[in-house]
Each structure stands twice: as C-alpha cells, then as structure tokens.
Amino acid sequence: MPKDAKLLKLNRSDFLFLLTNDILPLNQAVTIRFKTTHSVAEIREAARYMLAMYPRLRSIIVPTLFSYRMMILDNGNSRVDALFNDAFQVKRNMAFGTEEFFQYRRGLVNEPCLLDNRLGIKFHYLPDDPNPALIIVLNHVTGDGMSQAFIIDSLMAYLNGKRPDFLHLDDSSMKPALFEKNYFKIPLQLLKSYRILRKESRKNKNDKIIEVSDTHTDYFGPINSYSQPFSVGIKPILSKAKELGCGVSIFMTTALALSILRNQGEDKGDTVGILSSFDMRPYFGDNRPVIGNYLRATMLRAHRKHFDHPKEMMKDLQEQMNVFRKHLENKEILFPWMIEELQKFIGRKNFARIIKGSKRKEIMRMTCHHSTVGSMDFLNAHGDKAHLCGYYTATAHHALFFGLSTLDGEIQSFFTYPEAEHTVDDIRKLYKDLDEEFLRLLELKA
Fold first, then answer.
1. pLDDT tens digits, residue range 296-338?
2. Euclidean distance between CA atoms 87 and 120, whole angstroms
3. How far apart are CA 165 and CA 162, in angstroms?
4. CATH number of the domain at 6-159, out of 3.30.559.10, 3.40.50.720, 3.40.47.10, 3.90.79.10?
5. Residues 294, 172: contact at Cβ < 8 Å?
6. What pLDDT is attached to residue 343?
7. What is the rounded CA–CA span in Å between residue 262 and residue 310?
8. What are 88's strand-pairing partners?
9. Distance, CA of 92 to CA of 89 (rounded, Å)
10. Secondary structure string (H, E, C) spanning 352-411
C-alpha cells in the first residue's frame, strides 16, 4: 500500500454492492448531450479534475485480513494517471441515438468492473455528433445516482470556467443517519424499529406481488435500456399533482401501477410492488456526505382494490411514502439495518450463492424499481460556455427499472430490463400504456 494512500471502510451498501457486482455488474450509465461544442482535450481535462476534486473517484478495492476496504490513492500518485488513461476513452464517428450507439452503451452497462485494478468511473466521449455526447459510467460500489448528479454538476461548472473546491473524503458510515446522539436511547430505538418491521411484515404477508414478465429465469444475464418521449410534458403533471395533493413521484408511481394492473389479470397477483429509493443524506445533520452510497429503499404497494379509484391509490401510496420518511426522520430503521449488516460476515462466495438461490426460488419478488431524480435544470445554471440538451440514464438492475428526470421542461425517462425476461417490444408497450395512463390521470378532478 502506498504511504500516501488512505483506507476507507465500506458501509453496508458499499459492501453488498461489491458482493452483487460479482454476479451482475452494477453500472450506472448517464449520457449527457451538449448544445455547446467541446474539444476532446477540454472534456478530458474536466474529467481528470473530477478525480482530483472527489477522492472516492480515485479508489480501488483491496482485500484485508477479514474483509475489503476502499484504498483512496493520492491525486499525485502516478497510478491515478494510469488508471484515468484507461477510464477515459474517445469514440469517433458515432452519432447519438443510432443502433451503433445503443449497442455501445449496452456494452458499457454490462461490462464487468474489476475494481481491484480499475477505477469505479469511466468517461466515454463522442465528439463527432452535432450535439457531442459524454457517457459517464459510475459503478454502484463507488457511488449512487445522487453521487453521479453531483459529479456531473461539478463537471458542468468546470466547463463553464469555474474551479470547484477539492472536497475532503467523506466518511462512509451511515451511523449519523441511523443512531440517536444519546446512545442510551439506542436499545429503545432498536426495539421500536423491530416492532415496526414486524407490524409491516404481518400487514403485507398476504400480498401477491405482480411480476410483469411471463418469462422467469434463474440466472442473471445481460440488461438493456430503452427510452422514448411521452406525449405530455412535465408542467401539466406538476400542476395536476399539486391539484390532487400528491408529489410528482407519487403521481408517476400511480400511473405506472395502474398501467401494469390494467394489463395483468387477477391470476398474476393483487399488488404492484414498486421499490423506491430514498436519499439518506438529509438525515446526516450538518455534515452531509457527497460521494458514496447513502440510499435506502422501501417497497410501495399499489393494491388492485384501488384500481377503479386512482385518487385513493394516490392517497394510499403518498401515505406509505410519508410513513417511511417519518421512520427515516425518527431514526426508526435500525433493526432491519443491523440484520443487513450481518450479511457482511457471510463471505463473498456464500453471498453469491444466496443471491443466486433467491433468484432461482423467486424470493426476490418485486414488480419494478422506480427512481425519480427530479429536475436536472441546475446542471445548466453555471453559464453559457457549456450547456446540456439531454440527460439520459441506463442503470443495471436484476429486475425492471424505471427511471425519470426532467431537463428544460421535458421528461427524460428510461426502462432498464433483463434481456432474458423482456423484449424491446414489451418495453415499447409499457411506454404506450404509461403514456395513456398519464392522460387519464390528467383528466381527474380534485
């Protein structure tokens, strides 16, 4: 280990992503398109600055006696430049939106990432498109989707002539967001979270989760991503969500659930189980971390009994989300977090066996995973030298994944799907059904 390097302990999410990465490469690919023109040298310089600015981006995974650590290399270490040279690539004569582009991006998303000798981030620049595109692939072990948004925001600031300050290395620990400051309260906190978990388990034990695909596989294969525009923009959805008294995310989740229920018979199940991610950073107090894995997921359940009453479904989903946020605010998720912490001690090979067995026995049941990043307009707030006209995401996931953001008032969405369980025609139909559901919900009266 170099003398100027630092070892960072992996938190629960980091470690589980590392283990899962052996089975399914957990790559998050964001493609940004520029209205402005930028040379290869300019983009390369900005990308290299990101490694200097964010210490975690110049990390590799190293084994320890009983576990693994993230080794943070000093920015001046010659190995960082060598690793960056491998991570930064230029793809000539390729246009965004072509079949060649989609296959190229598919390869990046499915490419195994050996983090012991490669960086957890890659930059692939396509300079010859009329709107040059930069594909930024962040492995989930290195950081989550919010981390990627922070990195792109800093990159846009740099391209606009600013020089963001170098940041200190964030502590990976989740304890500030999980534990009460007064440690004597922890036993009561643990008991309360156990009771909440038991109550929710009893409440949901009879739910039959709907799976969209008729094809089930017992292995983890390649994934692909597909996106197309909706007929409706974000402004009418924002207005209608406000009128109906729900958040935009709940409006989208309701539309997704209704479109699935409309096309799945009662024999397929009675509940659409949509896994939703929540950013834990706001619960860290004054010292919020930036780059890393600080998300927590919960399953929002849309029940068939509310199919003919969309406003009741919205109300129920909003209540579920509010209850989970309350648990986060009151630090009432300690017991399930400690159970998950125990998984760090079962070993890499045993964890792989458990995950594969869960897939084979259909234990990991969910309808899909939904993530709403929100408006990305802040990326264009740094000046006119660099300006974006597109922000497109593709995230590796073992199940159907629907992601959504907005830029300049337009919805930027995608479905990521396992190729062995879905076809692109299946996803096109999902888009068509979801678009129709948006239009129906816009007709609702408060």
1. 999 999 999 999 999 999 999 999 999 999 999 999 998 888 8
2. 9
3. 10
4. 3.30.559.10
5. no
6. 74
7. 12
8. 123
9. 10
10. HHHHHHHHHCCCCCCCEEEEEEEECHHHHCCCCCCCEEEEEEEECCCCCEEEEEEECCEE
